[in-house]
Design a protein that fits this description.
27 strands, binds 2-deoxy-2-amino glucitol-6-phosphate, alpha/beta, eight-stranded antiparallel β-sheet
């Protein structure tokens, strides 16, 4: 997500902004910029690329004199990474300048209204709409203009705002995107997150939703959305800077696991309108959806695993035949793509070499290609015919968690939409599935908050030499992801197996004490899974079962049972993955592995 820093005080602002932004680089970004008031006007410098470029452009801030400024690192959401789309954004006479973290969901509607009033736009961003909307409402009173736009905007925002004819004031506003402010020795600071401010103060104010801050170099005032003054107390931050970058979590992976409820919500909520699934970016009419004869899902690693999951859902719900393939295989096997095949390329980074090559192969064969991507403006996002973004925000840990969960959500939405349009899912069925979908974030949060049981269990298996993950149907798909999580961060060999396939050879590997994780969340397959558990138990295995609340029958055979809450049968992977992620994580740290940067791995495999 984006990073914001603002300063007003007795020192030059630009060096402080650059320092603060450098401490937010961990958040992931693709461009950066600053705006500083020099006594006459507000000067803006911004560019695509790393902070280093901004540093060089401004000679470490020297070419931007002034003691009031705002800075920004952008994680692109609306509008590709570019100099023009970089923040800060401003109104036509550059008298109002804004930096923003979040997503304005109704920005297109607001943009159209402003254009009707003669406003022109330079960028594709939702943030420029904020600057122009402020201009539209501004009549000399910044606070009034700010509260007016707050009543018009839908979505999430943390804002830093400068008004040229109020050069002694710096404004900040928050709704859903985090924002903190603090008194520094030489002035006042705003920031998206603690690391940017710790060097200047440990006493911060956490801005709550729909609160506005007006600060001068010596004062700090807080208001609510009705412009009424409010009292706030500061919080003492005891974290060290390194911990602060992880939001107080020990590792990025744990932090990102805990961000899954938000990643899930952010991925589905903009695409459910009045009880219907609206995926504008899909670029397909209902007729084109009805004309789909086959779906070909192509990806690598965890992204491939989400394709394995969604195969069962597209086929089960929408009755569309699905083939799932590894990108590194697909690209070299001269694939047959018949008329009416929709190719879906799934990729968190959008830069995975094999997946990008597979996309090009598919397009060469005339197939329509949809990308499901997390990084806005990445190669796969740009080269796909259409792209459906997962709004997981930047993922730093090499082992994917929140992006994986968001990819599942994107595919649930597609499968439900396709099923509904093709008459396989009626209004009542859709409504019931959407109810279950909306429950997922809080259910994931509950599983994360009850991590002690799996943490204790993990500590018993630090010395394990190999682990098996078994499941049937959608539980086979989640077993693949559970196995990969363990392998890639704890270096323990593990294997995912279709439970019904064990007796065709692999069961010979089961010995006394071998850990087998059995996932059974599909009621119609419970009995089959129980007999598979009995099979491995009789050969000495120790069985950890992950199953639905209420399926206590499993306790008669499995040695250790983790329950997940009830949900739609097609959504269980979103819940079953949580204990499996936690298991891998705690085994990894128990073994002293580098959980965020496992050996031999890169976050994005941009080479073959
Ligand atoms: C998952 O934890 C791994 N980091 C890896 O398997 C990853 O999913 C794979 O490399 C695909 O990456 P992508 O989603 O960025 O294309």
């Amino acid at each position: 997500m984006c990073g914001i820093v603002g300063y007003i005080g007795d020192e030059q602002a630009a060096p402080i902004l650059l320092d603060g932004l450098s401490r937010l680089e961990y958040r992931g970004y693709d461009s950066a910029g600053m705006a500083v008031y020099d006594g006459q006007k507000i000067n803006v410098v911004k560019s695509k690329g790393r902070l280093k470029i901004l540093n060089e452009l401004t000679h470490g801030g020297e070419t931007l004199p002034g003691m009031l400024g705002i800075g920004h690192t952008r994680w692109a959401t609306h509008g590709e990474p570019s100099d023009t789309n970089a923040h800060p954004h401003y109104n036509s006479d550059e008298s109002i300048v804004v930096v923003h973290n979040g997503i304005i969901e109704n920005y297109l509607k607001l943009k159209k209204k402003l254009e009707a009033h003669g406003y022109e736009f330079r960028s594709e961003t939702d943030t420029e709409v904020i600057a122009q909307l402020l201009d539209f409402y501004y009549k000399g009173n910044p606070l009034q203009a700010i509260t007016k736009i707050m009543h018009r905007m839908e979505g999430s925002y943390a804002l830093g705002i400068i008004f040229k004819d109020h050069p002694d004031e710096l404004y900040a506003v928050r709704k859903d995107s985090p924002l903190i402010v603090g008194h520094a020795k030489t002035g006042n600071i705003i920031a998206s997150d603690v690391p940017a401010i710790l060097r200047y103060t440990r006493d911060v104010y956490f801005i709550e939703n729909e609160e506005i801050v007006r600060m001068t170099k010596d004062t700090m005032e807080f208001f609510n959305v009705d412009e009424e003054p409010i009292e706030k107390t500061s919080t003492r931050i005891e974290w060290d800077v390194n911990a602060a970058e992880k939001g107080g979590y020990e590792h990025f992976m744990l932090k990102e696991m805990y961000e899954q409820p938000k990643a899930i919500t952010d991925t589905f909520s903009p695409r459910i309108k009045d009880g219907k699934i609206v995926i504008e970016e899909l670029g397909m009419t209902d007729e084109e959806i009805r004309a789909i004869k086959k779906i070909m899902i192509v990806a690598c690693g965890s992204a491939y695993h989400t394709g394995m999951t969604s195969k069962y859902i597209y086929e089960g719900l929408a009755r569309i035949p699905v083939e799932v393939d590894l990108a590194s295989e697909f690209r070299y096997r001269n694939p047959i793509l018949e008329e009416g095949t929709l190719v879906i390329i799934i990729s968190q980074s959008g830069e995975t070499a094999d997946s990008l090559a597979a996309l090009r192969e598919a397009k060469k064969r005339g197939a329509r290609v949809l990308g499901i991507v997390n990084v806005v403006g990445s190669s796969i996002a740009r080269e796909a015919d259409n792209v459906m973004y997962t709004w997981a925000g930047p993922e730093i840990a090499v082992a994917t968690t929140k992006a994986y969960s968001a990819q599942l959500i994107a595919q649930y939405l597609l499968a439900m939409k396709f099923a509904y349009v093709r008459g396989k899912l009626d209004d009542a069925g859709l409504a019931s599935m959407l109810d279950d979908l909306r429950e997922l974030p809080s259910q994931v949060e509950m599983l994360l908050n009850n991590k002690e049981k799996i943490q204790k269990f993990a500590n018993r298996y630090l010395a394990a030499r190999e682990v098996f993950f078994i499941g049937r149907g959608i539980d086979y798909a989640i077993s693949m992801e559970g196995s990969l999580k363990l392998k890639e961060i704890s270096y323990i060999h593990s294997e995912a197996y279709a439970a019904g396939e064990l007796k065709h050879g692999t069961i010979s590997l089961i010995e006394d004490g071998t850990l087998v994780t059995a996932v059974l969340t599909q009621p119609d397959l419970y009995k089959k899974m129980i007999s598979n558990i009995v099979e491995v138990k009789t050969r000495g295995a120790f069985v950890l079962a992950v199953t639905n609340t209420g399926n206590t029958e499993v306790e008669k055979t499995a040695d250790y049972v983790i329950y997940i809450p009830e949900t739609n049968r097609y959504f269980t992977n979103s819940l079953a993955i949580i204990p499996l992620q936690l298991f891998g994580y705690y085994v990894s740290i128990g073994k002293g592995c580098d959980v965020d940067k496992p050996r031999n791995l890169a976050k994005s495999v941009t080479v073959e």
